[in-house]
Each structure stands twice: as C-alpha cells, then as structure tokens.
Amino acid sequence: MGNIVLFMHTSLDGFAAGTKGEMDWIHVDEEIFDFGAERIMKTNTALYGRVTFQLMESYWPTAADQPGASKHDKEHAAWYKTVHKVVLSNTLDQATLTNTTVIGKDYAAALRKLKEDTSGEILLFGSPTAAHALLAENLIDECWLFVNPVLLGEGMPVFDGIKERLPLKLVKTHVFSAGVVCLQHERQQEK
C-alpha cells in the first residue's frame, strides 16, 4: 500500500505562498536540489493540484532541451517524463495528457484506491490547496517540509482544513548551508 507524502516549502511562520501566490522567497540551490532529487528519484507516482501541475507541464517536458539546462533540469525532466502523474482537477481533460490520471469530484475515494494499488510513495508536490483537501480527508501519511528562514506574516497556509488532531512523529531533520531546514514527519496513530 502506498503512502501519500507532502513535499513542500514553507516559511518559518507556516505559509506555502504569499497572499498573491508568490513563492519568490523560497531558497533553492544545488545542495537542496540534490537532496530533493535523491528522494524524488525513488518515487514513481507524483500527485499535483491543477495549478501546480499546469506550472510543471509548462516547464518540465522541455526543460532538458533548453540551452544551458542544469544537471537538475536534465535529471528532473527525465524523471518527469516517466513518472505517473495524478492531478486533482475538475477541469483538465485526461485524454490530452500523457502518463497522467485526472481525478475530479470524488477525489478522496479515488486517492484511497490509488494508495491501495500503489507500492511505494505518492509524492504530493507543493499544491497547497490540494494539500488542504487531502488533510481534510486524513489522506496525508508523511510530510517533508523545507522550512525557509523567512517570515511572511500572511499568505496561503501550509496546513488548513484539518478536522481533527493529527499526531506526527519527527523522523529526520536536515539542515542546509543556506539555513533551510527539512523536517520529515510521519503520521502517528493515536493510542
């Protein structure tokens, strides 16, 4: 059975994006790319909200072909072409997409079935609105949060829609030279 893993950047005060969706405060560099790539390359199913998916689709299919493409661009583009993508959307047409499953209105039941049918992890990339919907349905099993050393004051929260307490266990931390800290938590069953 697969686990859904939230993979997201956050500000120190818990926001995934600014008030207008801005993410220019997120720090990424080769060290963070390499760390994330090691984790991502072990996964063969990626989960996105529609907005994040459309951003990914506008870049990754041709990123490796661009002049001056970085090592990260080439590696991630190759992974993106082969990974099975699952998108939460009521508007996208699955028939126009390659290696992609679109899940609409009954997403909770469809994701429970996906978890049953998947061995390994299902990475939920960014997608704060999708994360909120999954948290409301108690579908997230693990969180990898990249905490950036910045306070936004307001914006789109990482965690929203939680209907009941969700106990977590800190599994691992990793501190990057730029001051970003990755916190890995697993969901715990309450006793």
Report on the structure:
30% of the residues lie in helices and 29% in strands. It is of the alpha/beta class and 191 residues long. The protein has a domain at 3-7 and 34-140: Dihydrofolate Reductase, subunit A (3-Layer(aba) Sandwich), CATH 3.40.430.10. The strands form 2 sheets. Strands 5-4-3-6-1-7-10-9 form an 8-stranded mixed β-sheet, with helices on both faces. It has a two-stranded antiparallel ribbon with strand order 2-8. The mean pLDDT is 93.
Keywords:
8-stranded mixed sheet, two-stranded antiparallel sheet, 30% helix, alpha/beta, 191 residues, Dihydrofolate Reductase, subunit A, 10 strands
CATH topology of one domain: Dihydrofolate Reductase, subunit A
Structural class: alpha/beta
Shape: globular
Return the CATH architecture of one domain. 3-Layer(aba) Sandwich
Low-confidence stretches: none
**What is the CATH domain class of one domain?**
Alpha Beta
What is the H/E order? EEHEHHEEHEHEEEE
Q: Could you estimate the helical fraction of the residues in percent?
A: 25-40%
* Alpha-carbon Rg, integer: 16 Å
What's the total helix number?
Answer: 5
List the strand order in the largest sheet: 5-4-3-6-1-7-10-9
Rounded mean pLDDT is 93
Content of β-strand? 25-35%
Protein name: Dihydrofolate reductase
GO molecular function: 5-amino-6-(5-phosphoribosylamino)uracil reductase activity
